Structure formats: structure tokens, C-alpha cells
């Protein structure tokens, strides 16, 4: 396992991060602990979670993932061996059971303290805003619609000031954002510089062979501003493992269980997956290996977030850390992307 520095810090994070959003829904506590043990034993020291998890989010399972991680931390005493990241949920119909506000001081305070309690820790290494409070392009939205309401609700400065209070208290070490746009990212960076507040260290956005929209503007920001990408959905909800090819619907898989998660299952994505599968096959790779290796070796990616529901999946995903794609395969990947660009943003 290789490690990268969290931007402008002395914190080393593994190139692969363990995503945990199935803990409490598709995986029980025992299975979650098993995954955490295996990941740490194999060099993965970075764990990502969120108050929203498990997924799909509902009242009965709210906070269940953090609770499972917290019981593991207490049982093993491994808190000082891992870099722990969590997120505060933004507003939306699907989070009404959590709270009905944006990132107010009260909301951030409540969310952070509840996460710390569930995780059984006194601090988070990275605390992230799960998605913007304004209407903009995230969660698969292609077309931008401007809203005057956005201008009234933008509160970048007050968010940073509130988070800074918790940095000073030692409850948060570093800050990150998620599902954010280029404008939102630069606005946070600008406000931090202007008011001498903590700079963002990471942005957690989707990035995969089916969704390279990050390269349009945010990759340059990552490189120029030293804000690393934590790439989520590198296997596009398992679509880039190949298990859904030819109309297959494996038992207990996410899209089979929750058909509404169809973001990566459109016709163009299916065509692209077939092309990437053939490219992998002719080079002696699995589609999983091709997909994860491509994401991991991009210079703007600080860590690739992988999630698994079985130990075999987890083992295969972590093993891809040893694979580096040569320039000729990257060139063929780019040719496919030119033919079918970003079918699942």
C-alpha cells in the first residue's frame, strides 16, 4: 500500500480509503468489523463515513454506520492507527428525518457532537460538508439552473467560522467538502484566505471511467490549489465490476436491492462498460482492476474510496493497489471516453 499526504499536512493517508456506507444496511456489525480489521491489516489506514449512513438513508438506520465504526474503535483501541473522516448531511427531502436546515451553527454543532458520540472518539481527522445547500450540479445533474434563493442562502464565511471554532477546540483537525462545484470550491478557498480561516484539504466527488467530469475544471483546482480529490464511486455502484453486464442482477447487490440507484445504469453507460470490459480482457485485467487502477493513479486523486458488501470484493479491491496502468492502456481508455464521454455524471 502506498500513502499520500493530506494536502499541506503531516497526515499520511492510504491510496485506498475504506468506504463504509453499507454498514448497518447490507452489512451488519460483525461484517463491518471484519472489513475494518482486514483493511487495516492490509495497509488501509483511511476510513470514510457520514452521519447520513447507512444507505439508503432512513430514520431506522440513521447513524448506524458511525455506530458500527465506533464500537470497532472501542473494541480494538485502533483510533490512533486510522485517519477518520465523516460528513454532515445537507438539506433535502431524503434528509428530513435528520434535520431540515442547512449548515447553520446549530446544525453543525449538533451533527458534529452526535458523530463524535457515535464514533466514540474525541476528534475527527477530517470533517466534510456532504453536499452544497444551494441548487447546483451534483448527484447526476447535468444542466445548471440558477436560483436567486442561492444568493441569499450562501453562507460560506459563517460555515468556515463555525468549523474553525471546532478546529480550535481540537474536535476537528482538517476540513473538506463533497459533491461540490468549481465555483463553490474556489469560494471556500477565497473566504478562508481572506479571513485567515482553515483551508480545505479535500474534496470528495464522484470519479470513475463513467464519470470524468471532475477533469473539466476541478482537477486543475486540485493541482493548483493543493486540494486532493477523495474519489467516490470509482466502480460506479458496482457497475464497473462487470457484475451487471448482460442484464445480470446478482442477489443482494445494491442496484438489485435498491433499483432507484440507477445513476450508472443508462444505455450509454452499458455501452461504455462493454468497451472497458473488452479493453481489460485483452490486457489480462479484470474490469475492477482496470477501473480502480485508472482512478488511483491520477495525480489529483489523494485516495480512492472503495466499498464492499463481501470480503471477496474487499480483497479484490484492495489488491488493485499494486496495479499501474501503462500509457498505452491509458490512451485506449481516453479513446473510449472520447467516444462515450461521461455517460453517468
What class would the helix/strand composition place it in? Answer: alpha/beta
Largest sheet: 8 strands, parallel, barrel
The helix/strand series, from N terminus to C terminus, equals: EEEHEHEHEHHEHEHEHHHEHH
**Average of per-residue pLDDT values:** 94
Q: How many β-strand stretches? A: 10
Could you give a quick summary of the protein structure above?
By secondary structure, this protein is of the alpha/beta class.
Protein described:
The longest helix is centred in the C-terminal third of the chain and has 16 residues, at 267-282. This protein is globular. The model has no long low-confidence stretch (mean pLDDT 94). It has helices at residues 29-41, 64-76, 105-119, 148-153, 156-169, 182-194, 218-225, 254-257, 267-282, 287-296, 311-319, 327-339; strands spanning 3-5, 12-14, 16-19, 46-48, 83-88, 124-129, 172-178, 200-206, 228-232, 301-306. The protein has a single domain, classed as TIM Barrel (Alpha-Beta Barrel), CATH 3.20.20. It has 345 residues and is of the alpha/beta class. The protein is 39% helix and 14% strand. An 8-stranded parallel barrel has the order 3-4-5-6-7-8-9-10, surrounded by 6 helices.
Amino acid at each position: 500500500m502506498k500513502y499520500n499526504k493530506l494536502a499541506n499536512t503531516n497526515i499520511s493517508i492510504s491510496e485506498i480509503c475504506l468506504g463504509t456506507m453499507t454498514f448497518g444496511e447490507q452489512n451488519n456489525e460483525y461484517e463491518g468489523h471484519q472489513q475494518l480489521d482486514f483493511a487495516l491489516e492490509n495497509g488501509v489506514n483511511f476510513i470514510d463515513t457520514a452521519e447520513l449512513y447507512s444507505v439508503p438513508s432512513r430514520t431506522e438506520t440513521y447513524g448506524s454506520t458511525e455506530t458500527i465504526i465506533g464500537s470497532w474503535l472501542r473494541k480494538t483501541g485502533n483510533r490512533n492507527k486510522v485517519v477518520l473522516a465523516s460528513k454532515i448531511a445537507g438539506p433535502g427531502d431524503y434528509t428530513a428525518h435528520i434535520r431540515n436546515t442547512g449548515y447553520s451553527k446549530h446544525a453543525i454543532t449538533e451533527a458534529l457532537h452526535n458523530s463524535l458520540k457515535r464514533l466514540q472518539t474525541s476528534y475527527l481527522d477530517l470533517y466534510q460538508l456532504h453536499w452544497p445547500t444551494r441548487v447546483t450540479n451534483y448527484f447526476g445533474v447535468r444542466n445548471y439552473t440558477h436560483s436567486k434563493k442561492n444568493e441569499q442562502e450562501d453562507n460560506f464565511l459563517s460555515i468556515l467560522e463555525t468549523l474553525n471554532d471546532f478546529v480550535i477546540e481540537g474536535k476537528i483537525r482538517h476540513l473538506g467538502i463533497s459533491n461540490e462545484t468549481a465555483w463553490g470550491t474556489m469560494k471556500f478557498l477565497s473566504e478562508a484566505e481572506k479571513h485567515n480561516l482553515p483551508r480545505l484539504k479535500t474534496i470528495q466527488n464522484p470519479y470513475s471511467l463513467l464519470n470524468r467530469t471532475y477533469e473539466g475544471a476541478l482537477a486543475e483546482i486540485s493541482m493548483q490549489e493543493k486540494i486532493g480529490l477523495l474519489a467516490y464511486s470509482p466502480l460506479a455502484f458496482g457497475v464497473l465490476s462487470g457484475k451487471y453486464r448482460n442484464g445480470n442482477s446478482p442477489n443482494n447487490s445494491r442496484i438489485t436491492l435498491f433499483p432507484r440507484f440507477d445513476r450508472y445504469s443508462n444505455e450509454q453507460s452499458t455501452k461504455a462498460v462493454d468497451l472497458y470490459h473488452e479493453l481489460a480482457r485483452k490486457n489480462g485485467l479484470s474490469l475492477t482492476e482496470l477501473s480502480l487502477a485508472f482512478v488511483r493513479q491520477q495525480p489529483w486523486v489523494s485516495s480512492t474510496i472503495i466499498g464492499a458488501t463481501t470480503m471477496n470484493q474487499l480483497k479484490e479491491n484492495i489488491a488493485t493497489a499494486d496495479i499501474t496502468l501503462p500509457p498505452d492502456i491509458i490512451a485506449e481508455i481516453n479513446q473510449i471516453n472520447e467516444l462515450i464521454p461521461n455517460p453517468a455524471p
